[in-house]
Amino acid sequence: MNAVFGTSTKQPTWQTIALFVLGLWLSSSFILDFVIMPTLGTAGMLNDASFASAGYSIFWMFNRIELLCAALVLTSLLAIRGTSNLYHHVRRWSILLSGLLLAIAIINTYIMTPQMSALAMQLNLFEPATGMASGMVEMHEGYWFLEAIKLIVGATVLAWCYHDSREIA
């Protein structure tokens, strides 16, 4: 166990993993939320009846990657918790905030995405699509609320990790 979580040789490795994964996760989430989805919306694909299944497949894959990223961030912060230069209060908050990031990824993966896809799915082929289903607006508000929390908390943890890595160097 000491070989994996050693104090002198592994700290920059775990620090690098946390920085890389947080940067990759936040940037890909930003691109998906503010580039890809608005582009699909302006192209009219969000109003298509078959978009629910396509959107579910996009978010199914992205949410699993998001779970992996959240788990890697939490693991790396737990691995460097005893050797970090950050003072005790920030270390504790960074671990708690990374746990919050994991909780948000779990909520998005297992609650929000299946529920939104189920609401958007058109089950009767003989009825014309009538637009957005009732309850979808509340689900979108919840999704954007979680995304805003994720981006703010992720940027905070990224800034703390970057500051800590600058202190080591």
TrEMBL record:
Membrane among keywords: yes
The organism of origin for this protein: Coleofasciculus chthonoplastes PCC 7420
Keyword Secreted attributed: no
Record-annotated TMEM205-like domain positions: 21-122
GO cellular component, one term: membrane
Membrane-spanning ranges: 17-37, 57-80, 92-111, 142-162
Protein name, entry field: TMEM205-like domain-containing protein
Subcellular location, record wording: Membrane
Domain of life: Bacteria
InterPro entries: TMEM205-like (IPR025423)
UniProt keyword terms in alphabetical order: Membrane, Transmembrane, Transmembrane helix
Pfam family, one: DUF4149
